[in-house]
Design goal:
It comes from Hermetia illucens (Black soldier fly). The protein has 274 residues and is mostly helical. The protein is built from 10 helices and 2 strands; from the N terminus they run E-E-H-H-H-H-H-H-H-H-H-H. A hairpin with a 5-residue loop joins strand 1 (11-15) and strand 2.
Length: 274
């Protein structure tokens, strides 16, 4: 049986406003590995993903690293490759856990550095890493992904006859959006720890620290928007961008209230592990 020919991953589709894809252009990202035209059930896809979670020799870490890089400099190009996956593998969600593994490793490394800056003991460092990986990232991601999965399938599809948004894809969107804030808040911010926390009474300290948080939230909102905007049969995805003015208003309020957000979250981190 012959399958219809799908576009090769060497070309990509550019965005036309908020309505989907229009023109074609070359993508600098490498093609996803392991082409397959088979359409699997959600249960089968989940089982295959979990089965590969500890088979590192089967993961495409090169492609995952490309995604990490482009999430910072051109996140829309990452989602063009999700579109290719839908064409070639009949699913938007990742079938390769390499990106999740890279994210967890990055969380562990940056959390260890964060714990070192905070001066935590070995036992409390392990507890801190556990909280960051399994609560702040994965558990919170399950909640956020479930929320967007329900909202998009209930309110944002053009027609109820259109295919459902996969829960796995909603979780992938969260992971994509989580990576840049992780680097901003758990890595770059550490270089200014003395200013952001130890001198929290200064206006410049509040301005710098709260700006880091504003930048992190802005990345999360924008990458989340791109994740749902790239699906052709979704409408009104621009409403996700309402998070921008809300984040900016909160940013201004924190400065007016002389609230150092970084200082408060460091206290919260310490409270959870003591």
């Amino acid at each position: 049986m012959k399958y219809p020919t799908s576009p090769t991953p060497s070309t990509s589709t550019s965005f036309a406003g908020t309505g989907g894809f229009a023109s074609r252009s070359t993508s600098p990202l490498p093609p996803p590995a392991q082409y397959s035209a088979n359409c699997l059930s959600a249960t089968s896809k989940s089982y295959r993903f979990l089965r590969r979670l500890f088979k590192f020799n089967q993961m495409d870490f090169e492609f995952a690293l490309w995604q990490v890089l482009y999430l910072f400099i051109a996140p829309q190009k990452v989602y063009r490759n999700f579109h290719y996956r839908k064409q070639t593998k009949s699913q938007f969600a990742r079938d390769d856990p390499a990106f999740l593994v890279l994210l967890v490793v990055s969380l562990c490394v940056t959390s260890l550095a964060f714990a070192g800056v905070l001066g935590l003991t070995f036992a409390r460092t392990l507890w801190f890493v556990f909280y960051v990986v399994f609560v702040d990232c994965i558990f919170a991601g399950i909640i956020v992904a479930t929320f967007f999965w329900l909202v998009t399938n209930r309110f944002l599809r053009n027609s109820q006859l259109d295919p459902d948004i996969e829960w796995g894809y909603a979780f992938d969107v969260h992971l994509n959006a989580f990576f840049p804030p992780l680097v901003i808040l758990h890595f770059f911010q550490l270089f200014f720890y003395g200013w952001l926390v130890l001198r929290s009474e200064l206006f410049l300290s509040r301005l710098l620290g709260n700006t880091f948080w504003l930048l992190a939230f802005s990345y999360y909102i924008y990458i989340t928007f791109l994740g749902y905007n790239c699906i052709p049969h979704l409408k009104n995805t621009r409403y996700i961008l309402l998070g921008f003015p809300i984040a900016f208003i909160l940013y201004v309020v924190t400065l007016v209230m002389a609230w150092n957000v970084t200082y408060s979250f460091v206290d919260f981190y310490k409270y959870r592990i003591y």
